[in-house]
């Protein structure tokens, strides 16, 4: 029989994403709603090792639902990869009377949580927080929808200047090894071509596509490139390659970078964060552990952490075809 | 055996919504991709009656994916409600060689399309375009996601001043008879209480909730009210009622109004519009008619227009509970 | 010889405006830069009466330069209008060792500061914080530039739907008795006509202008109306009047309301706030009192508080002409 | 005695900037207001050489006041640098009956206009359109205010992630040889340090400043670097240098790039564009030539093109001091 949970610790770890604060708020208020205590753990697993804790009541999370970043801060912890580090962390949790953990982050965060659970039989629930949308078991990770809006907003600006000067722009977007951001933001921004790691178009195809685009009367074009793209050239080499082969093109490069991780979360991400936080805490109270709470077919659903880590999210291949048709 | 489609007409009708232009672009380019012609019909069914048509090629829809409103304009047509009106419209379509219609709009738009199909056996496909999300058969209508972001963005601004002055704000949002916008944007904006037509909280409950909120140490509050709310008082009467009963509150009212319908569509709405446009045209080419293309469990799916009109979308009751917990 | 200033109190009072937090930050950090102490006074003069103070160091104002509202909160104080109230306030200041005040707000705030100075010979400097831009002695008040951007952004959205439906919109904006917001945002948003308190166009002229607009082929129009406009009708009566006289128009009304006061300040307002805060504190240190720091011809300049209160800011009449030409 | 102007040509040239469309609109409508014709010249001087002209009436510029980029497109023209090219351009103007030119752009644009005037005694007025604010004779160039807002908005997003991870970010912004964007956006975004070409802080000072910042308890920092900065290292070399000397810092680099040139213009830029367009056309009608219209002490004022080109705009050194105090 599971121990009754009386005090939940919550942390954010790995790259931050918009919606993490809304998730923290949801965890804290769900705890308060059920009359259990909640402890904020600063700087992810590193703060757990150092006992960097703070009690959080419903008023501690006022006015953060709309803030980017994470008020609990995030950090990578090499020490948590050692048994000694985890032991220290466990001792700090015990001392603080924490019974269960909600960890918000991505693959690395969940892996840490899973090992911790295995070693100390400590209840852990995961909330997927990353802009990359590369977590199995959820159609959307926290921050992904916001990042898509940030990216299309920026490309809209770039298009103003591209179209004023009849130029070709290569825009590199985030996504680690996944093309979700590139594919969706590319369609949303009306990109001529989208290069993603999941689909190797080959350099020939890119040249063809750009030539066709010129022939069809388009005066300017945007090509969106996922940072993890495997076309064999980085975005600056790609520019050189295209200019060498298609001298009629004057290529500009824009690497969007870290701005994609910040900003006020979209309504979708705020609502999702609120739902996932409720489910994470209530699942712990029901005695569950080692699950990630996520979204499946618009419903909140649980996935074992192990699957969430090992599983591979696929891109929606229908979107590749839509992108192709849209660049007609 | 269905007649081969060679020329598709596209129109927007009813209240405009962000994403309509992206849907028009998608219909036009999908036609071009399949080497069929596309005709833009201005001002909805009224323009059909008047033969207000324009040929559209893939370059006619350059740089509109990110524009609010509809380049084809929209209008209400009383004439189209008469058999004579529809006859004129049919003649114009025949004369122009149009074989099939894609109609973008809400309930009224689909009803018009369905009657037209019944009378003239004319192929019609519907794309749900309305911010209200009140169409059966799709989890999201075009413009809904954008409207949610617009609303939370505005309420974030209102919260700045509410929180600086320790005030209570009543914010009225759109949604016709449905509470989708109010419920989701209310959660997203961290509303203290959300009043929607689907759930009559009663005035007592509102007062209680506000008293509890004061007692819990909250210094300012936002109440989001759906325009179709049936609490028996409009938002200004509600203000008077609350101030009469809770004199400690200084209530301000904000009616968000038409701004909710405009603005550059979110990435989600642009991608959705692109997907739905492709499916609408390709369904016509496959000989289908009288369907609405929509989104179900993240996949594009068809719903008979008749069902789309008659069916009732339900709010997600899980969200009512989430809202309740979040206002702890 | 003026007493050496060792501790400065800072407060915000009256309606909040974007940039107030940036000004608080500037006052706090300028104090720290000069090695003097700074005390935040909550809820304006009311908090001064109640001794609601908090020490502020340079780290107390981290990450607020971009936040709307005021972290020191604002309130109206009827008690401060009484000699007893002001006496209590003075005692609290003395007890806390505060030597001088920086008050951020509008007319009412400065009047309070001036009376307080007269009664207790207490050094006071004012920073103009209001979106209305109605303070003499500064070309820009804090928050005005941000409010203009908020208003044009919203009217851009309204224009999407106005232009899709060929409609006329009346948009009421803030500004108290001044037409600065209406005039500038009206030009910025491409308004057909702008109604401001400083210039009575008369109802006839409005009708004529709308008729001319229709005749010139404009399909939709926006009329921007200052809340303090003296045309003799409120915006809803105006709608009825126009619809009665110009039946070809279908008028919609949008009252923008309090959202105009919130939001993240524009770069201009943040820089202005930073400059004014430095000047306010350094002027106190130089022994000056009873001045407002403001912007004149792009330079920071001092105006006696008395003049700032009594003086009347004029609208730039060149802009009326520009507006007229732009609606050609 | 000057020839009466009956037909004005307008073009945009050089890098595009937000507000150019609003300026085009203003030129076109001011012409219509004075009952003279207006011709849009595409792709700057290159389009002039090729006779790429289009008549523009007041309705041709509907709904562009809020659009970034330039509907007339922009291009660099090497041919216009030759007497033959300019001769062709002149012939096209004569053939089209164009009497005078309004050229919108920066230094290069004005230089071209001045040479053209000298050779053909052709009336020319300039409107300063560039985000860099590096034109003598105007306190603000078109697009500068918008670019500042774009930059602070992006740095706000970067700060979310910087502050979540306690990181140092180097953000490179545009501005050619001028530090206006860096200095103002740096203050607006709360940058720790700002590197601009006009002021060589030296590398030592940067290290000191970062050390002081760490010591003062700041957990994250932003350094804003103008692209024209002359510190002797590009932004990536600077990162390496700082990490080598201050190993406690983990530096990230973000080069904002072309997005700074796009986007919907701020209210300020729209109003400024409207004012400058009126003045440019009316000055031509008064027989003036070879001036740039600009803003001086909030008033529209003329500066001889020759001075506008040769003069040097200085940064406001008060702002350097403000920046220094703000990073306390």
Task: Describe the protein.
4 copies of one chain form a homotetramer. Chain A is α/β, with parallel strands linked by helices and 328 residues long. Chain A has 2 domains: 7-143 and 265-310, Rossmann fold (3-Layer(aba) Sandwich), CATH 3.40.50; 145-261, Phosphofructokinase domain (Rossmann fold, 3-Layer(aba) Sandwich), CATH 3.40.50. Helix content of chain A is 42%, strand content 17%. Chain A contains 11 helices and 11 strands. Chain A has helices at residues 20-33, 44-50, 83-96, 107-120, 144-165, 180-188, 203-215, 235-245, 267-285, 305-310, 317-326, and strands spanning 7-12, 37-41, 53-55, 100-105, 124-128, 168-173, 193-195, 221-226, 251-255, 291-296, 299-304. Chain A has a 7-stranded mixed beta sheet, sandwiched between helices. In chain A, strand 4 (100-105), helix 4 and strand 5 (124-128) form a beta-alpha-beta unit. In chain A, helix 6 (180-188) runs parallel beside helix 11 (317-326). Chain A starts with 6 loop residues before the first strand and ends with a helix. Chains in contact: A-B, A-D, B-C, C-D. Chains A and B meet through helix 1, helix 5, helix 6, helix 9 and helix 11 of A and helix 1, helix 5, helix 6, helix 9 and helix 11 of B.
């Amino acid at each position: 029989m599971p121990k009754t949970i009386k005090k939940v610790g919550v942390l954010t770890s790995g790259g931050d994403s918009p919606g993490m604060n809304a998730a923290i708020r949801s965890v804290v208020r769900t705890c308060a709603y059920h009359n259990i205590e909640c402890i904020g753990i600063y700087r992810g697993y590193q703060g757990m090792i150092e006992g960097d804790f703070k009690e959080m009541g419903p008023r501690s999370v006022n006015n953060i639902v709309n803030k980017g970043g994470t008020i609990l801060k995030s950090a990578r912890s090499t020490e948590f990869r050692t048994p000694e580090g985890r032991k220290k962390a466990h001792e700090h949790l015990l001392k603080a009377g924490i019974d269960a953990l909600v960890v918000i982050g991505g693959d690395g965060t969940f892996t840490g949580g899973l090992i911790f659970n295995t070693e100390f039989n400590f209840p852990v629930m995961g909330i997927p927080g990353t802009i990359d949308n590369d977590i199995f078991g959820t159609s959307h990770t926290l921050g992904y929808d916001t990042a898509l809006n940030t990216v299309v907003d920026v490309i809209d600006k770039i298009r103003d200047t591209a179209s004023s000067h009849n130029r070709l722009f290569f825009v590199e977007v985030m996504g680690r090894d996944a093309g979700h951001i590139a594919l969706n933001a590319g369609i949303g921004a009306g990109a001529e071509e989208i290069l993603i790691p999941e689909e190797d178009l080959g350099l020939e195809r890119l040249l063809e596509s750009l030539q066709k685009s010129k022939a069809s009367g388009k005066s300017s074009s945007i090509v969106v490139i996922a940072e993890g793209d495997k076309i064999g050239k980085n975005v600056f080499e790609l520019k050189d390659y295209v200019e060498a082969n298609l001298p009629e093109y004057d290529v500009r490069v824009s690497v969007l970078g870290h701005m994609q991780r910040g900003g006020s979360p979209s309504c979708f991400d705020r609502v999702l964060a609120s739902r996932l936080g409720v489910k994470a805490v209530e699942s712990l109270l029901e005695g569950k552990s080692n699950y990630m709470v996520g979204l499946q077919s618009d419903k909140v659903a649980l996935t074992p952490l192990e699957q969430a880590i090992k599983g591979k999210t696929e891109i929606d291949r229908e979107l590749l075809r839509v992108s192709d048709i849209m660049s007609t």
